[in-house]
UniProtKB/TrEMBL annotation:
Residue stretches in coiled coil: none
GO cellular component, one term: ATP-binding cassette (ABC) transporter complex
Pfam families named among the record's database cross-references: ABC_tran
One Gene Ontology biological process: quaternary ammonium group transport
SUPFAM superfamilies reported for this sequence: MOP-like (SSF50331), P-loop containing nucleoside triphosphate hydrolases (SSF52540)
Signal peptide: none
SMART domains xrefs: AAA (SM00382)
InterPro entries tied to this protein: AAA+_ATPase, ABC_SmlMolc_Importer, ABC_transporter-like_ATP-bd, ABC_transporter-like_CS, Mo/tungstate-bd_C_term_dom, P-loop_NTPase
Protein name: ABC transporter, ATP-binding protein
Gene source species: Cetobacterium somerae ATCC BAA-474
GO molecular function per UniProt: ATP binding; ATP hydrolysis activity; transmembrane transporter activity
Length: 325
């Protein structure tokens, strides 16, 4: 039995089709990412699950109960927004307690939940501070603490990391995943960031133009994209020919080769970028520009020069439904 089931959901805003025949199922305890470009329908779908938008047609089931027309407050879901959505005139503790007070939860239990949730998000001792006394990352942690404090059936995350700087985003990304696993909360996160989706989710639902275009594990979607859009949206795809054979490969699946190696090919080095842990080479092979990611310690001994000949080998070709075009 699926925990959450979305069946034939459609949504239109005026003449704009926001969601087109959406169907999928989620198991209890899964971490799911809705991934896609801006305007693809992922946030609308999240809001429909939360009950903040109504469907034009279709149904939503939670634990076998049809909740399509159920009021948002009755769905036992919590949502964390990109903008934090904290009350500026309330302390951290009061922000966390706000929803629980509306549910008439006893004061002693509320205090216990505040303490537990702040401990989980790493903000113990910050209960009496106001939002403007906290950093952006800390404010998002308060929003997360508030969301998990009353044990929702589903935790919804609407691009929760996009407003944060890179280092804070990476740390909070890891913390969210660890908290989700510890609590076992079924979680759905909207993101346009491929790295977030690949590193955090159990499964990814890729969307484009109001439709679901692929559902799968991060590894399956990265290594076996269903079509050209997914292949290019999640990473880079090189397309070139070797001895008349059409080849498609990710930059990291091409390696340096000796001239004597089987299945090698030669190209001309156009340019290179130092990326820290690796170099990204751009190699010209008969007017195909191929991007190649080489680990730093495998290339550090080689003096790179523009227009030098370089020998490469394809270690793995791309699977799935990507087509040569």
């Amino acid at each position: 039995m699926s925990y959450l089931k979305i069946k034939n959901v459609e949504k239109t805003f005026g003449k704009f089709k926001a969601l087109n025949n959406i169907n999928f199922e989620i198991e209890r305890g899964e971490f799911i990412c809705f991934l896609g470009p801006s305007g693809c329908g992922k946030t609308t779908l999240l809001r429909i699950i939360a009950g903040l938008e109504n469907v034009d047609s279709g149904e939503i089931f939670l634990k076998d109960e049809n909740i399509t027309k159920k009021h948002p407050a009755k769905r036992n879901m919590s949502i964390v927004f990109q903008s934090y959505a904290l009350f500026p005139n309330l302390t951290v503790g009061e922000n966390i307690a706000y929803g629980m007070k509306n549910k008439k939860i006893p004061k002693d239990i509320i205090q216990k939940k505040i303490d537990e949730s702040l401990e989980l998000v790493g903000l113990r001792g910050q209960e009496n501070k106001y939002p403007n006394e906290l950093s952006g990352g800390q404010q998002q942690r308060v929003a997360l603490a508030r969301a998990i404090s009353y044990s929702p059936d589903i935790l919804l995350l609407d691009e929760p990391l996009s407003a944060l700087d890179a280092k804070v985003r990476e740390k909070l990304r890891n913390d969210i995943k660890n908290i989700q696993k510890k609590l076992g909360i079924t979680t759905i996160m909207v993101t346009h960031d491929q790295e977030e989706a690949l590193s955090m989710s159990d499964r990814i639902i890729v969307m484009d133009n109001a439709k679901i275009v692929q559902v799968g594990t991060p590894q399956d979607i990265y290594e076996n994209p269903a079509n050209n859009f997914i292949g290019d949206f999640i990473g880079k795809v090189n397309k070139f020919e070797i001895n008349g054979t059409k080849v498609m490969a990710r930059p990291e699946d091409i390696s340096l080769a000796d001239e004597q190696t089987d299945n090698f090919f030669m190209g001309t080095l156009e340019s290179w970028e130092y990326m820290g842990s690796y170099y990204r080479l751009k190699v010209n092979k008969k007017n195909y520009i191929i991007e190649v990611d080489i680990c730093r310690n495998k290339i550090a001994h080689i003096p790179l020069k523009k227009d030098q000949h370089i020998f490469l080998k394809v270690e793995r070709t791309l699977g799935g439904g990507v087509e040569w075009s």
